[in-house]
Design a protein that fits this description.
alpha/beta; 11 helices; binds nicotinamide-adenine-dinucleotide; binds UDP-4-deoxy-4-formamido-beta-L-arabinopyranose
Length: 361
């Protein structure tokens, strides 16, 4: 029995595949490499050492390709899915919303249809996002954000996640009513950051980076002249917005905990868990932490607010802490140091293979 990881060559997917292999899960990956490279999977196998034998197959395939999916489910015995594959750029989602609905929503429906047809797979762990909460500060008492905070996504990307959460719940309920004990874990991530401490696995988006720490990484290696700080007039301690930055390795481990939980609780139809640290950091906290790691002040300039940004997205992760027996272990400083090792060792991302003779830590 294997776990099918969609989007497994991507940033969070590759770290999760590594954790799955290390935890002795057999893994099958599907990815169309739209925003990733197969080199990431080579490095995952390298880091997994002898456990790379648990990596069964990689399929370069679109999740909307019905025939491709059916072939994978026929060739492999899949018993659960971790579903990462998606388009994820918030701004772009307002420009090409139909593409976002096509990949994210239609892709999930095709995936569920193929899984249903296979009849071996009855569990899905889904990559949702804190963005489904929208501006939680609109409701008093909702910071840190608990899972029962009312959902109010404010952009097409967030709405794809919101709709998919409901589609998955409807599917699970229908299957259970038909006597097939499907279950699902909806994981709402806060801001994933960092890289592997070996410096050989990290985030390598196609095109320009859009998120704060990857941009700072590019400033540090001279690829971007300076960071634009989007607003310093928010009601926070230093005027910049607050986010909950979670190390990608802690996040990946949260997926293993969720897969284990769903296996052990086939009586539980659906669970919703926030994966975050519970600790908020401002943009200036991040600039200072990363500048300290790099050993010099990184240039920035204050610009106007970015449309759609909210003051505070800090998780209340206590439900996941308790039920999954999972909590974050790595710090923001760990994330900065790991990111720095990644960007300085791989200024061109995965485009140059890492020499296999170098031992990871
Ligand atoms: P990523 O872009 O690195 O990974 C997504 C992967 O999906 C990529 O490898 C891409 O090639 C693949 N993919 C895209 N469209 C596909 C398709 N049609 N068929 C098959 N594969 C396809 O992104 P990530 O940061 O690793 O995010 C993974 C998941 O987590 C996404 O669902 C994202 O929405 C969600 N998420 C990410 C963040 C974040 O800040 N990184 C936060 C919350 C939620
Ligand atoms: C973080 C902070 C910016 C860039 C996004 C998605 C969210 C989730 C995680 C997928 C904010 C500030 C940023 C810059 C800046 N992804 N910033 N200058 O917006 O919190 O969350 O990624 O689900 O849905 O919206 O992350 O890294 O873009 O921004 O000042 O050049 O950094 O204003 O306060 P965000 P981010």
């Amino acid at each position: 029995m294997a776990v099918l990881v969609t989007g497994g060559a991507g940033y969070i997917g590759s770290f999760t595949v590594l954790q799955l292999l290390l935890a002795d899960y057999q893994v099958v990956v599907i990815d169309n490499l739209y925003n990733s490279s197969v080199e990431a999977l080579e490095r995952v196998k390298f880091l997994a050492g002898s456990k790379a034998k648990n990596f069964l197959a990689f399929y370069e395939n679109d999740i909307r390709d019905k025939q491709g999916l059916e072939k994978i489910f026929a060739e492999q015995t899949i018993d659960s899915i971790i579903h990462f594959a998606a388009l994820k750029a918030v701004g772009e989602s307002s420009v090409i919303p139909l593409d976002y609905y096509s990949v994210n929503v239609n892709g999930t429906i095709e995936l569920l249809q193929a899984a249903k047809k296979s009849d071996t797979c009855r569990s899905i762990v889904f990559s949702s996002s804190a963005t489904v909460y929208g501006d939680a500060t609109r409701i008093p008492g909702m910071i840190p954000i608990p899972e029962n905070c009312p959902l109010d996504p404010t952009n097409p990307y967030g709405r794809t996640k919101f709709f998919i959460e409901q589609i998955i719940a409807d599917h699970v309920n229908a299957e259970r009513n038909a006597g097939k004990p499907w279950n699902a874990a909806i994981l709402r991530y806060f801001n994933p950051v960092g890289a592997h401490p070996s410096g050989i696995l990290g985030e390598d988006p196609q095109g320009v980076p859009l998120n704060l720490l990857p941009i700072l990484g590019n400033v540090a290696v001279g690829k971007i002249e300076k960071l634009s700080v989007f607003g310093n007039d928010y009601p926070s301690k230093d005027g910049t917005p607050i986010r909950d930055y979670i190390h990608v390795i802690d996040l990946a481990k949260g997926h293993i905990a969720a897969v284990n939980y769903m296996k052990e609780h086939s009586d539980t139809p659906i669970k919703y868990w926030n994966l975050g640290t519970g600790k908020g950091s401002t943009v200036f906290d991040i600039i200072h932490a990363f500048s300290k790691t790099v050993g010099r002040d990184l240039p920035y300039e204050i610009k106007g607010r970015r449309a759609g940004d909210v003051l505070d997205l800090t998780a209340d992760p206590s439900l996941a802490n308790k039920e999954l027996n999972w909590k974050t272990e790595l710090t923001l400083q760990d994330a900065c140091e790991d990111l720095w090792r990644w960007v300085s060792n791989n200024p061109d991302g995965y485009r140059k293979p890492y020499p296999a003779s170098l031992n990871p830590q």
